[in-house]
Design brief:
3-stranded antiparallel β-sheet; 193 residues; alpha/beta; 7 helices; Rossmann fold; globular; 2 domains; 8 strands; single chain
Length: 193
């Protein structure tokens, strides 16, 4: 993980170039084989908000990333378990201890004064394309791509077809990082978002 600084000038330049709003400040970036896999910028937080809001019951997440979405999901009273499937062992070794360290600081579940709620976490070292566990899950989220590209939509569709039978119905929820944004870009004829 690398900490980087965004200056006020760089922040304005990114906005002018249409790369989203990145307020000036310090951020962290996760590199996998020299490629930025994710960061904790505001845009990254916003693009992952849906899974935090929709996660309930037993949750499957493909891609550990920096673990940014896990703490709020693990603290949700309506979440029982979270299984994260991560392809890169070095990412697990780097991030899992940071997530485990948050357990003592978890927030009390609503209506349960004095008791902390922290859902059970299991991190599996595997490629989501080879992951054979049947579930079922109440929520499934795929976040395995380093960038927003319309090309990701084919892989998203393949994963969603493969995991559809493992989702609890009728209240189950399944999505992928930036999926709606990518579909809109494809309709406009844009290649990258």
């Amino acid at each position: 993980m690398i900490v980087f600084e965004v200056s006020e000038h760089a922040s304005r330049l990114e906005a002018l170039l249409g790369h989203g709003i990145v307020p000036s400040g310090r951020y962290a970036r996760l590199l996998v084989h020299g490629m930025t896999m994710m960061s904790d910028t505001r845009d990254e937080q916003i693009s992952n908000y849906g899974v935090v809001r929709r996660a309930t019951g037993d949750v499957l997440i493909a891609g550990l990333g920096m673990g940014m979405i896990l703490i709020p999901i693990l603290n949700k009273p309506e979440v029982r378990t979270v299984t994260v499937v991560e392809k890169h062992a070095d990412v697990i070794a780097l991030v899992k201890p940071q997530i485990e360290a948050h357990k003592p600081f978890s927030i009390p579940a609503k209506g349960k004064r004095g008791r902390d709620h922290f859902a059970a976490l299991r991190v599996v070292h595997a490629d989501i394309h080879d992951f054979a566990e049947r579930g079922p899950w109440d929520a499934i989220y795929f976040d395995i791509w380093p960038d927003k590209s319309v090309d990701n939509l084919r892989e998203i569709a393949k994963l969603k077809r493969r995991f559809a039978r493992r989702l609890v119905r009728p209240n189950g929820w399944m999505a992928a990082w930036a999926e709606k944004e990518l579909r809109a870009a494809r309709r406009r004829g844009d290649w990258r978002v």
